[in-house]
């Protein structure tokens, strides 16, 4: 049975333009846009009317870096696909791209099947997968081709975590060479893990066991060095490269230098690097453990380079790297040894609001907000224009956003399954009011009306940002 929704009176903001327009939704897709008050808009009828007067009408967010139910350090991320996607919806995100993990000694297919099993029937919003490669050998290289064809078109490798997820330069080069042939995109965790492990060992031997030493042993130059090395390996392979969770100004400089040469090199940063700093890692009484993630939070002076990189397009995407661990019982595993603190922060619910605050603060424009949070991640990972924009034919993943509402971020009110907020007590201007996922209201006037299983798996094309 056909259903029509009319969103009337709002300012439609996409990466391309801002226009006072009404939006007609039919059967889960955007059917048409027309100027507010125009004859065409006045003629529309609908089963459901949403008054967006004084509000923004924006595309649903695309968070291209999440880790639901992710295994790390003997425990699992505290959000599963049900709680994590529900929280994402509350924050105005309507699509996530999560990371399926190949376990050492197993095939890519086994890892992907395991993540499908975790997510199937659980998600409140649409989802897709990247593939983490833990074993790069002839078999897994062949498997890459088939995964690209079926819509898993990006592969993450780690220059960090020796003995767990680490790939050496030879394996990285082979994977890049394969991606150059099959159209896949290599995503890189760029930190020199071999050198970091030496610094960790030395710190622990000195008795430097507190959370702040997590940041000090993961030196900014070891992020910059790994970023440089990844870029050179990608040049040798003739492959594009996407560097995840860039946190250091020296790493931004490496990306900018490569892009100045015209190389297909891209970078993402995360809200924690834009809004938090190494000061949080140094909080007393083990509170700093809440802020342990990798790459680590940096001294505050790095933030200016990250904002500048977002304005100059040397950084293209802001994702969350959402990988929450509760303070009690999980982060506490590292009391007396910072290297045992599970690495990861909660944030899938906060990204769109924090980036709107960046608009309010003058760091970025409204259109750039939508570009880095919706349109570019959709293009980078083969989901555009189905996702990431409001245009005829696109999925009706639409957020009615109140730019004047003031809220205080807190674990008392968030919907992520974690016992603290990385942004506890921070006041931001702007708040999600209503969220449509494929035309269905999942947040309706600040009430959750969605359900587990509404979200569907969404195969992806290859990177559309290269053209």
Question: In terms of topology, how is this protein built?
Answer:
Blueprint (H helix, E strand, L loop, with lengths): L3 E5 L2 E3 L4 E9 L2 E7 L3 H5 L4 E4 L4 E4 L1 E6 L4 E2 L2 E2 L4 H10 L2 E9 L6 H12 L6 E7 L5 H12 L4 E5 L10 H14 L2 E5 L3 H14 L5 H6 L2 H18 L3 E3 L5 H12 L4 E5 L1 H5 L2 H4 L21 H10 L4 E2 L32 H10 L5 H15 L17 E11 L18 E11 L2 E4 L24
Helix pairs in contact: 4-5, 5-8, 8-9
Low-confidence stretches: none
Q: Return the structural class.
A: alpha/beta
Structure summary, number of beta strands: 19
Q: What gyration radius follows from the Cα positions, in whole Å?
A: 21 Å
Euclidean distance between termini CA atoms: 38 Å
Helical element count?
14
Which descriptor suits the 3D outline?
globular
Percent in strands: 15-25%
Give the biggest beta sheet.
9 strands, mixed
Proportion of helical residues: 25-40%
Mean pLDDT: 97
């Amino acid at each position: 049975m056909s259903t029509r929704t009319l969103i009337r009176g709002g300012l439609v903001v996409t990466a391309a333009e801002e226009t006072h327009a009404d939006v007609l939704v039919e059967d889960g897709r955007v059917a048409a846009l027309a100027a507010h008050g125009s004859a065409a808009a006045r003629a529309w009828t609908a089963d459901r009317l949403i008054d967006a007067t004084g509000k923004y009408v924006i595309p649903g967010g695309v968070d291209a870096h999440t880790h639901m139910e992710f295994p790390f350090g003997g425990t699992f991320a505290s959000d599963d696909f049900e709680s994590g996607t529900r929280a994402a919806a509350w924050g105005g995100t309507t699509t996530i791209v999560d990371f399926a993990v190949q376990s050492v000694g197993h095939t890519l297919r086994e890892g992907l099947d395991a993540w499908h099993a975790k997510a199937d029937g659980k998600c409140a919003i649409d989802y897709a997968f990247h593939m983490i490669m833990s074993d790069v050998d002839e078999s897994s290289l062949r498997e890459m081709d088939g995964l690209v064809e079926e819509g898993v078109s990006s592969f993450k490798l780690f220059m960090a975590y020796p003995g767990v997820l680490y790939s050496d330069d030879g394996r990285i080069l082979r994977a890049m060479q394969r991606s150059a042939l099959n159209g896949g995109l290599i995503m890189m965790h760029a930190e020199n893990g071999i050198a970091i492990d030496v610094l960790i060992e030395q710190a622990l031997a000195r008795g430097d066991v507190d959370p702040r030493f997590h940041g000090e042993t993961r030196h900014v130059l070891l992020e910059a060095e790994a970023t440089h090395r990844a870029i050179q390996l990608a040049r040798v392979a003739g492959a594009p490269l996407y560097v995840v969770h860039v946190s250091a100004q020296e790493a931004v400089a490496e990306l900018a230098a490569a892009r100045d040469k015209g190389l297909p090199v891209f970078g993402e940063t995360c809200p924690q690097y834009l809004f938090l700093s190494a000061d949080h890692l140094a909080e007393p009484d083990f509170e700093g453990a809440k802020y342990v993630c990798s790459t680590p939070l940096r001294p505050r002076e790095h933030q200016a380079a990250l904002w500048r990189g977002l304005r100059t397009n040397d950084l293209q995407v802001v994702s969350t790297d959402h990988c929450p661990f509760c303070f009690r019982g999980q982060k506490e595993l590292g009391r007396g040894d910072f290297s045992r603190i599970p690495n990861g922060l909660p944030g899938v619910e906060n990204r769109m609001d924090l980036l709107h605050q960046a608009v309010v603060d003058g760091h970025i424009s409204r259109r750039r907000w939508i570009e880095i949070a919706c349109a570019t991640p959709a293009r980078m990972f083969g989901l555009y224009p189905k996702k990431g924009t409001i245009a005829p034919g696109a999925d009706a993943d639409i957020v009615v956003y109140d730019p004047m509402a003031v809220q205080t971020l807190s674990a008392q009110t968030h919907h992520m399954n974690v016992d603290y907020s990385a942004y506890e007590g921070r006041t931001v201007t702007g708040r999600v009011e209503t969220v449509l996922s494929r035309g269905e209201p999942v947040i309706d006037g600040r009430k959750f009306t969605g359900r587990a299983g509404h979200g569907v798996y969404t195969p992806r094309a290859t990177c559309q940002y290269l053209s």
